[in-house]
Amino acid sequence: MKWGRSIIRSKAGKTLIVDLLVDREGIIRKCYISGDFFAYPETIINEVERKLPGLRLGEALLKTRRLVGEAELLGITVEDLLDGLRKAYNDAVDQKTLDSIIR
Amino acid sequence: MQEWRLIVDEGDLYWCMAVDEAMLQLREQGKIPNTLRLYRILPEGVTIGYFQRVEDSVNLDYIRANNIPLTRRITGGGSVYHDGSGEITYSVVAGINDVGGDVLDSYRRICRGLVYALRYFRVRAEFKPVNDVVVTGRKISGSAQTRKKNALLQHGTFMYATNLDKLANCLRAPREKLASHGVSSIRDRVTTLADIIGRRPRVEEVLEALKKGFMKALNIRLHPSNYTKEELYLAEKLIAKYKDGEWVFRK
């Protein structure tokens, strides 16, 4: 298991940090989404953090898009968030695991 | 023209944050009127945004070594150094419909109160979306808003003479963020009213300017008032949360 992190600077000048703990099978085990952005309601971010563990990247992205679609982000966009998840995931997962997941 | 309550007070960091949350809850329930609160966080304190991780947003070693109170806000946004002898914190608690517009509109409208307040000192400032007020590109005020179904709370800083060296020591921003502002350090992207006008304004002057600024921006009258018993009771209860490590180090 390995932690991966991404730091995204949004167009609006806000910072988004994603930390993901990913196991050897490529499954997300822990997720933290942090930064100085805004979300309405705020609880939507807690919900994403709670629902991603147990999922692989593709499912995690779909799930996130669906959840956040019902909320309003300010300072970052949904695309920033998905981009952050992708980058943190890639940071956590080594090439061999990535190949075996894709296959 | 609507009449709002005005409350001017001061207290330690935990009390100040607890009162803001208590007001929001009670405004949501329709138990208190719209309120402008102007306060000083004594002697000082640091707050981080709802979504921030402590290690990424503040210099914890410095804060601990200097016994500076630290807590997490219920509002998003970034980390803030509150200087009780150089900063007034404001909070607006109101019905969402009474402020009007979408979230960004309401930031703009409330922040206009700060822009107008600066005008009384002949300082030209502007709202910089999402949540800053800047003078010649430097931040003089930052705000953060949270909403419930019917009510909103927006609170923020007005740095009239904040100790910016101490601010820079307390706060930490990822390098990626500073690069986006085109400057090299936190110290270089903030300013104070005192720095701009070349003298230290008196607190009374600052409070007066803020009152007038918000009255104009929100098109309201203000009547000085105080907390209800229920607000005080609820705030007392909420203090524990703001002191709780589980809350502060949640992420």
Can you put this structure into words, describing what you see?
The complex is a heterodimer of chains A (103) and B (251). Chain A has a single domain, classed as 2-Layer Sandwich (Enolase-like, domain 1). Chain A is built from four helices and five strands; from the N terminus they run E-E-E-E-H-H-E-H-H. Chain A has helices at residues 43-51, 57-68, 78-92, 95-102; strands at 2-9, 15-22, 28-35, 38-40, 72-74. Chain A has a three-stranded antiparallel β-sheet. A two-stranded antiparallel ribbon of chain A has the order 4-5. The longest helix of chain A is centred in the last third of the chain and has 15 residues, at 78-92. With 251 residues, chain B is an alpha/beta fold. Chain B has a single domain (2-248), classed as BirA Bifunctional Protein, domain 2, CATH 3.30.930.10. Chain B is 40% helix and 27% strand. Chain B contains eleven helices and eleven strands. In chain B, the strands form two sheets. An eight-stranded mixed β-sheet of chain B has the order 7-8-9-10-6-2-1-11, sandwiched between helices. In chain B, strands 4-3-5 form a three-stranded mixed β-sheet, with helices on one face. In chain B, strand 9 (138-147) and strand 10 form a beta hairpin. The A-B interface holds A 7-9, 12-15, 17, 32-42, 45, 72, 74-75 and B 49-53, 56-57, 74-79, 103-104, 129-131, 144-147, 173-174, 176-177, 179-181, 251.
